[in-house]
Structure formats: C-alpha cells, structure tokens
Amino acid sequence: MKELALMKGNEAIAEAAILAGTDAYFGYPITPQSEVLEYLALQKPEERTGMVVLQAESELAAINMVYGAAGTGKRVMTSSSSPGISLMQEGISYIAGAELPCLIVNVVRGGPGLGTIQPSQADYFQATKGGGHGDYHLIVLAPASVQEMADFVDLAYELAFKYRNPAMILSDGLIGQMMEKVELPPQKPRTSEFDQSWVITGKRPDRERNIITSLNLDPELQYEHNLKLKEKYNRMSEDVMFESLHCDDAEFLLVAYGSSARICQKVVAVARGRGQRLGLLRPQTLFPFPTDELARLAGKVKGIMAVELSTGQMVEDVKLAVNGRVPVYHYGMPGGKVHSPDDVLEAVEENFIGG
Amino acid sequence: MIKEENLVYRRTPLMTDATLSYCPGCGHGTVHRLIMEVVEEMGIQQDTIGISPVGCAVLAYDFMDVDFSEAAHGRAPAVATGIKRLWPDKFVFTYQGDGDLAAIGTAETIHACNRGENICIFFINNGIYGMTGGQMAPTTLEGMKSSTTPYGRDAMKMGPPFKITELIAQLPGTHYVTRHAVHKAGLVRKAKKAIRKAFEIQQEKKGLAFIEFLSNCNSGWKMTPNDSNQWLEEHMYPFYPLGDIKVDGKLVKDVCKDLMQKSPVTT
Fold first, then answer.
1. Quick check: B87 contacting A, CB < 8 Å?
2. Radius of gyration of chain A (CA)
3. Neighboring chain B residues of A71 at a CB cutoff of 8 Å
4. Which terminal Cβ of chain B has fewer Cβ within 10 Å, N or C?
C-alpha cells in the first residue's frame, strides 16, 4: 500500500527528495520555501539514506555547491525563492553551460526586488528564457498541487539526466505553503552507478581526465557548443506535458499553470454550469511549452486567455503558439495578490462572452 | 646521453604536454608542477579532483592531468565543498588567485575555512589581476601602481592590502596555514613539502589546509622576470612574510599583530 500523508507543498518536495534517492541538498533559508531545508534537517536524511544536507552561507555558495556536486554524476538539488534564485543565476548559467543535471526548486514570491513574500508567478520569464547570461534553457516543471510537488522531484531528475541539463520546479508560495493529501512514492536507492564518460571521480588509468567546464575560448568551439545546446532544447519537446480540461468542445480557452490553474479549474466548472463552453489547458512543463497543442486548439476556439499571477509573461508564449489565429487575452494578478474565480469569471465575461 | 641512473630530475608525467599559457618567469607553472609531483608521489591521481579558478589559471585543467571542475570567479571553495561532501574519500583541491580568493570569493573562502572543509586551498598571491591586464587586487601593496591605480594604491580610498591568510588562520576550521614562494630552488623545495603536508592532512581528515604562494607577475608589474623576483623579495616579503602561520591547528604567529601591520608604501 502506498503511503498517504497530509503535507505542505514544501515538505512534500523535501520528503520526495529523500525518497527519490537525492544524494545532496545545498540551500539557504528564504521565505516562503524555508520548510524544505527545515524538513530535511529534521528528517536526518544522512541516517535515512546517507543524503548530504548542508546549509550554505548564501544562495551563491549553495548553487556552486550544487555545481560542484552535480559534476560527480549524483542526484543533487537546491531550493530557494525568487530573490535567492536571482542570486543563483550565475551558477545556473554555468551549470547549463557545463551541461550538468541537477534540480532547482523555485517557490516564487512577488517582485521585483525584495518584493513580497506572498505567492506570484512573476519569475516565468527568468525560469523559461534562461535567466542568467548566455543562450540556454532549463527544463521547467510547474506543479499545481502538493501531489505534483512530490511527483515532479523524481521526474525532474529523470529529465535532467536524460538531457544532462538543469531542471527547475517552478512552484509558488501558494503551492509551497498549502497542505494537501499526498501519496508518497517508495524509497529509491541513492546513485551507485556513474557514467564514467563525463563525471569527475578522479582520473582512472583507463580513461582521459574528465573536465567540467563551460569555457570555450575558441569561438568556433563555443559556436558548436551553442548549436549542440540548441539541438538539445529542440529535442526536449518530446517530453512536453500538459493537462486538458474540457478542451475538446471548448469555444473559449483558458491557459494557466500552477496555482493559477487551480483557480481556473473552478472557473471552468462555474462557466460550464452556466452553459458556457470554456476549456482549460494547463501546461505541466513550461519549457518545453505545449506550443503544438496550443496551435492545434487555436484552430478550434474563438479566443484564448492566459491567466497568471503576473502582469503578463506566459501570455507571450501563448501568442507565439497561437500566431495570430485567434485573439489572445491576458488576465493577471501581480504583486502577491491571488485572483479569485470570480475575478477570472469577470474577465471571461468581458473578453469572451460580451466581447 | 645521460644514463638513467644519473638523472637528478624528470618531469612528472602528471603534467600534460600542453604548452603553459603563463608568462615566462611566472610562478604558476612551478606551483602546478609541485602539486602534480606530490599527487604522483602519493599515488593519488585516481582520487584527486582539482577546481580551477577564473584568472590566469583558468585553464589549469589543461596542464594538470587529473579530473577538474572549472569554477565561476571566486566560487571554487563552494564547488570544492559540493564535491568533497559527496566524495569524502577523494582528494579535492582549489587553485585560486588573489582576486578570485580574496575579493569576489571572500565569503566562499571564509566559510569553507570556517566549516573546516577537508580540502586543500592553494592560493597564488601576485598582488595584481594578471589575466585581465594588471588591475588592482585586494593584495596590491600600498602605493603600488596597477592599471586601475595608475598613481599607486591609496589606502585612504581603496583600503589597505588584505591579508586574508592571516585572517582565515584564526578560524577553528583551518588546520594548516602557511605562506611560501617559488622563485628560488630552495623555496621550491620548501613549498613542495608544504603541499605534501597539505594533502596528508586531507588524507587524515584533519581539516582545511591553506597554502599561500607569493608569485611575481612580471608582465603585470611591468618588469623583467629577474627584476620582478627581486621586487617580490624587497616589497612583498615585509608585508607577506614567508613561513608557517598555523600548524596542527595551532597558531604559531601573532596573527592579530600581523593583520594590524601597516603596509609599507612602495613606489
């Protein structure tokens, strides 16, 4: 029988990290994600699985510990919230450049700057467009429940190792802080086998030395490297994930992820009760983005509205996918405030029904 | 031909055949060689992982035949921490310059030392940013000219030179802290012994071993190699004296007094 628990989203990530056989976690406290490190510290994972848990002196140090540790080919992660993730961008860029698999969790709060500690989806651009310097992308997973907070940990590792690329779980203060029932997976063993082709274990006589680096002084080499990365990012589209709610017969479509999608689920239910044919497409991966599915749906509906906790970020990817075929609207609630289903219903009436 | 039995020196096979990217007369190549000689003599190549910095030694991994991870500017002690925590039985060392270790990476340096990470930190102090073209470093002496202090370092504006080695020696996590130079044969032999000791401390899991190497930077200082070696002795020695600072976890010098020492003004 599977284990059921009532947990906060942040705790579910931490427990799922132990269960996924994570070898090391390096982090630094920041609201609203501090429970991840606190939970791990309380659980004594060094006794449960031998997992290393270390509180770093800064997010800068934490992500560079992740960089170092990820070079050993083991399962390594960190977590933080928006301002902390900004501090980590240098390291994330190096990790992407050096093609290291790892997991980064962002429990997003409102910004810019110190902003607010309340939930937000204003880090969409940073998460999906690279975030740090250079031409790169993360694999970005967007959980909409405590269950997905737990489920996406192992999935993120699988994808990170499949592509040798950093993966991010883009959550927010709402999912991180709320408690729900969660079904926990069985314990996976920690990493015991290593791909000797690239990891740093100490040079063996039977192989050349392995070097983890993102440096290519020769522009020809950097050019080749950038093209190789691009090819990898293109390939990721085969792992796109989304959930469709009443999309088959929808006249109008909402696109929302994470906590905003939870609210839109209610919006669709109410609208359907009123006889309005509203559907919801919920991207579970934000990179790769469900571009093809949106393009397909754009041929069937009269209008599309992106609903997010920001002044408009994901809506740009929706517009690119729709490519002008139908009107694309945006409804956003920035600044740490969370829209109610009624707020969204009003926008639905205004843009779709009355429009 | 010299007979094999008469050879007094051979190049360690752990130095690769790549041509060193360092200026002729610079100390980097010597320190690289000494580290690799020690790794060879201890037979630990299979268990050794180096962390290269940003600066002149950014390509250190091209020259030393061990597994390497390249770190962002200043972050080598954090990168080393991540590796060492996952491979506690491997030998992990960072190789860093003064700008990397004592300016942008000060927090990472101090906290890795404070945690007593069981690693070796090899710190090259040449009082200047070499790779970017001779700008002021945290270790640049008062009055010393650099491309960003063309009239000499003014301590009132830029602060005095920073003795990070004396600073970290006071932290309980450091087990062995020492300062060496490599521009003379006798000094090279002493430096090698210190490197050996540093790796042995790591083997015995006693804590962090930190070695500062004073090096000339003849191109950054705009001198001939010989003149720069002489300048190093005349101007660097008085402020950065050679010798052990901490041995077996115990201070062997009055580091507080050394930290308060006013930098001699050089011109």
1. yes
2. 21
3. 69, 82-83
4. N
C-beta atoms of A69 and B65 within 8 A: no
Kindly tell me if the per-residue pLDDT of A355 is higher than 60: no
Enumerate residues 6+ apart whose C-beta is below 8 A from B181.
Answer: B27, B187, B191, B213, B214, B215, B232, B242
Chain B: closest CA distance from residue A245 (Å): 43
Q: Domain containing B44: what range?
A: 22-260
Pairing label, strands A285-287, B48-52: unpaired
Q: What is the ipTM of this complex?
A: 0.96
Which residue in the block uniquely carries the two structure tokens 């920035």?
A: A334
Q: Which residues contact A298 (CB under 8 A, 6 or more apart)?
A: A304, A321, A322, A323, A325, A326
pLDDT digits (tens, 9 = 90+) for A187-221: 999 998 888 899 999 999 889 999 999 999 999 99
CATH topology of domain A3-202+226-238: Rossmann fold (3.40.50)
CB-CB neighbors (< 8 A) of B48 in chain A: 202-203
Residues B106-144: tens digit of each pLDDT? 999 999 999 999 999 999 999 999 999 999 999 999 999
Where residue A155 falls (left for φ over 0; alpha for ψ -120 to 50; beta otherwise) is alpha
Give the number of other CB atoms < 10 A from CB of residue B251.
16
A258: tokens are: 């994470």
Contact B140, B129 (CB under 8 A): no
Q: How much is the pLDDT for A1?
A: 56
Question: Cβ(A139)–Cβ(A168) under 8 Å?
Answer: yes
Cα–Cα distance, A243 to A285 (Å, whole number) = 10
Q: How far apart are CA A235 and CA A230, in angstroms?
A: 9
Contacts 24+ apart (CB under 8 A), A151-159: A151/A16, A151/A185, A153/A13, A153/A16, A153/A17, A153/A19, A153/A20, A153/A22, A153/A77, A153/A103, A154/A16, A154/A19, A154/A20, A154/A185, A154/A188, A156/A103, A157/A20, A157/A22, A157/A75, A157/A101, A157/A103, A159/A236, A159/A239
Residues of A with CB under 8 A from a CB of B: 23-24, 26, 52, 54, 56-58, 60-62, 64-72, 74, 76, 90-91, 94, 98, 200-205, 209-215, 217
| Structure token digits, residue A210 | 């392995």
Question: Which residue from B minimizes the CA distance to A89?
Answer: B72
Domain count, chain B: 1
Burial string for A35-58 (b: 16+ CB within 10 Å, else e) reads bbbebbeebebeeebebbbbebbb
CATH 3.40.50.970 domain range(s) in chain A: 3-202+226-238
Contacts of A202 in chain B (CB under 8 A): 45-49, 66-67, 87, 90-91
The fold adopted by the segment(s) A241-353 is: Rossmann fold (3.40.50)
